[in-house]
Amino acid sequence: MLSWFVALGNSGLGQYMQASRWGFAVVEAVHLLGLAILGGVVLIVDLRLLGVVLKAESARTVSRGLSKVLLSSLILMILTGFALVSEEALKCYSSPAFRWKMVLLAAALLFYFTLHRAALLRTDKHQANAWSRAVAVISLTLWLGVGVAGRAIGLL
């Protein structure tokens, strides 16, 4: 893994990000915009699974309507995330917070595209059940963990 981080830091992208006066700030701003959009979509869908908002719509309909926004913001965050890591690749390699973020991100994505999706398909149109509520709480916890660990990268 170390060789991959070294190669990323020495890549053209890494060199640009390290030498650019505004590159990191602009890419980080776009990354945070993607985070806000992704977080908003996850929050809306999970609040629907909890039975708190949009009660007249099925959870599946709400999720389907926001799926392109979720995927677009996720792709945006992954692309900008690579650029951010390339700027300080060795710091990320040795950062426990970065490792936690990656583990939590993998868990959140796996959860969101498996059990979360299954809960969306099984949830009754008008009523949240214990399964959908548990899934929503786990989803929110995982995504919050990704955000907190990401923030911790800059602090540690």
Automatic annotation (TrEMBL):
It holds the Pfam family DUF6644. This is DUF6644 domain-containing protein. InterPro entries: DUF6644. It comes from Terriglobus roseus. Residues 28-155 form the DUF6644 domain. Keywords: Membrane, Transmembrane, Transmembrane helix. The chain crosses the membrane at residues 30-54, 66-85, 97-115, 135-154.
